[in-house]
TrEMBL record:
Pfam families (UniProt xref): Beta-barrel_RND_2
GO (cellular component) term, any one: efflux pump complex
Organism listed in the record: uncultured Alphaproteobacteria bacterium
Annotated ranges, domain CusB-like beta-barrel: 203-272
GO molecular function: efflux transmembrane transporter activity
Similarity section: Belongs to the membrane fusion protein (MFP) (TC 8.A.1) family.
Designated name of the protein: Putative Co/Zn/Cd efflux system membrane fusion protein
Lineage: Bacteria, Pseudomonadati, Pseudomonadota, Alphaproteobacteria, environmental samples
NCBIfam families registered for this protein in UniProt: RND_mfp
Length: 363
């Protein structure tokens, strides 16, 4: 009976150990349970309530002035320059003489051609009268007629050669270059002078494919030239073939230049109105880029989430940059837009520094 009691005591001890080990008291993990994660705090951003307003869209471009017409006056006959009537840089009228070549033996050749023609004409008249009386053949009449026509052609060529010794301006303009002097020997097609027409003057600009549809011939343009001032012009040409490298279209603006103060080759700033549209006036500092690299702004939805809006610059003036392509009203993020992403919850607070006036200026 004593042996049985010992087995019972041993079994009780083993059971107690099992319970103890199972409870984690030996080698167990005594770390307290993890505290629940705190909710992430929303980023605070500054916003303004922006409403679109009607504004005249404007395309601001930079171009280059060029002469309305430019021509290189070339010699049409050979000879020595005998007289120069127009100095480089001087303005001349249409038809005004620029230079004259020496006549040399042209007068003698003209006299010879005149005498030969007179002779051939007499021979033809005589042959015709004899043929009428059957004293000369029709072949003789045809021969003398051909000889007279040949003499007439020589006479006309002699007169034209003399006329070509004088070089005149085909239109009113300014002599921009004159590579010859008195005594210079020129051949046919040698340059004698360069004549440019500066009134009116043209301004060449390049317009992107996204804006070319709004440009029309006859559109009024605002022009500003450094050192000269502002003026008005009109679109006279809109290209319809884009440059392969830039995908831009050439546009020409014509500007009056009666005093010729505007020279060819100057830089010009051009503003082309493209019609009225709705746009938001903003500070350029609020602009941001989307993940795809698109230019736009960020706003806050009624649910407190950030949303990105692609925007199109319409014009820039004293009120700032005007952006089109946006909703008519939006809560525009003006502070912190670079630190939040589309779809992110934010806490919006009014940005009083950039808030628009309650009575915006009418346009």
């Amino acid at each position: 009976m004593r042996v049985r009691g010992s087995w019972v005591a041993a079994a009780a001890i083993v059971a107690a150990c099992v319970v103890w080990i199972g409870s984690g008291l030996i080698g167990g993990d005594r770390r307290p349970p993890a505290a629940p994660a705190k909710a992430e705090r929303a980023v605070r951003v500054g916003v303004i309530e922006s409403r679109a307003r009607p504004v005249t869209a404007r395309l601001d471009l930079t171009g280059t002035t060029r002469a309305n017409r430019a021509v290189e006056l070339r010699a049409e006959t050979r000879g020595r320059v005998a007289e120069v009537m127009a100095e480089k840089g001087t303005a001349i009228a249409r038809g005004a003489p620029v230079a004259r070549l020496a006549a040399d033996d042209r007068a003698a050749r003209l006299a010879r051609a005149e005498a030969l023609f007179a002779q051939r004409d007499i021979e033809f008249q005589a042959a015709s009268r004899l043929a009428d009386k059957d004293y000369a053949s029709r072949v003789r009449v045809a021969t003398t007629r051909a000889e007279r026509e040949a003499a007439a052609a020589e006479l006309a060529a002699a007169r034209l050669d003399i006329a070509r010794t004088g070089i005149a301006a085909p239109f009113a303009g300014v002599i921009d270059a004159r590579p010859v002097e008195i005594g210079t020997l020129v051949a046919v097609d040698d340059a004698v002078a360069t004549l440019v027409e500066l009134d009116p003057i043209k301004i060449e600009v390049e317009v992107s494919e996204s804006a070319i549809g709004g440009v029309r011939v006859g559109t009024a343009a605002e022009v500003r030239l450094p050192g000269i001032g502002s003026g008005a012009g009109v679109v006279t040409y809109v290209g319809r073939v884009a440059a392969p490298a830039t995908r831009t279209f050439p546009v020409e603006i014509e500007v009056p230049n009666p005093d010729r103060r505007i020279a060819a080759g100057m830089t010009a700033e051009v503003a082309l109105p493209l019609g009225e549209t709705l746009a938001h006036p903003v500070s350029p500092a609020v602009l941001t880029l989307s993940a795809a690299g698109e230019l736009g702004v960020k706003a806050v939805t009624p649910g407190g989430l950030v949303e990105f809006h692609k925007a199109v610059p319409v014009r820039e003036d004293a009120e700032g940059l005007w952006l089109g392509g946006l909703p008519e009203t939006l809560r525009l993020i003006t502070v912190g837009q670079d630190f939040v992403s589309a779809g992110q919850p934010v806490e919006a607070a009014p940005d009083t520094l950039l808030a628009p006036s309650p009575e915006p200026a009418s346009r």
